[in-house]
Amino acid sequence: MILISGCLVGLECRYDGTSERNDPLLEALKDRSLVPVCPEQFGGLPTPRARAEIVGGDGHDVLAQRARVMDETGRDVTLPFIKGAKEALKLSQLLGIKEAYLKRKSPSCGLGAIWRKGQLVQGDGVCTALLSKNGIKVTCV
Ligand code: SF4
Fold first, then answer.
1. 53 near 28, Cβ under 8 Å?
2. Are the C-beta atoms of residues 81 and 39 closer than 8 Å to each other?
C-alpha cells in the first residue's frame, strides 16, 4: 500500500482547485494499492484556497516551531499544515504504510525543493518532513 498525493491521482485538491494527474506514475504503480491524501485539506483548509509558502525555513523547521507557513493574504496557516501532516501520518500508521509518492515543490508535499517567492529553494514540505521523521520513505514526483 502506498500513500500518494491526491492531486497526483487526479483529485482537484490543489490550491487553485485543479489536479496534477500523473498518468505515467499511475501506470507504474498500477499493481499497488494507492491511498490518496491531501494534507492541506486534511488540515481543514478549503479548496480553492490562497497559495501558501514556508517562511523562515522548511517543513522540518515548521515542525520544530522555527518557521511558519503563511498564505498570500498574510494569514498564518501553520497550524492547519501541521494538523494535515499529522493526519496523513496517522492514516499511514493505521494502514501500515511505509512508502509515499508526493507532489514535488509543494510546501506540504515537496521533497528537497519547495517554492518560495517564485523561486525553488532547498527544503522539504511539512508533510514530507513529518512522514520522513517517522520512517516513511518519501519519493517526490
Ligand atoms: S501537493 Fe499535497 S497538499 Fe498540495 S494539493 Fe497536492 S496533495 Fe494536496
1. no
2. yes
pTM over 0.85: yes
| Shortest-distance atom of ligand 1 to CA 37 | 7
pLDDT score, position 24: 98
Grid coordinates standing for 36?
490518496
Pairing of strands 119-122, 113-116: antiparallel
Q: In the chain, how many domains are there?
A: 1
Pocket test of ligand 1: the residue of 3, 20, 40 to mutate, having most ligand atoms within 8 Å of its CB, is: 40
Measure the CA–CA gap between 71 and 26, rounded to whole angstroms: 30
Neighbouring CB atoms inside 10 A of 52's CB total 26
Bridge partners, 3 (sequence order): 35, 100
Computed over every residue of the chain, the mean pLDDT equals 98
Tell me the residue range of the domain where 27 lies: 2-140
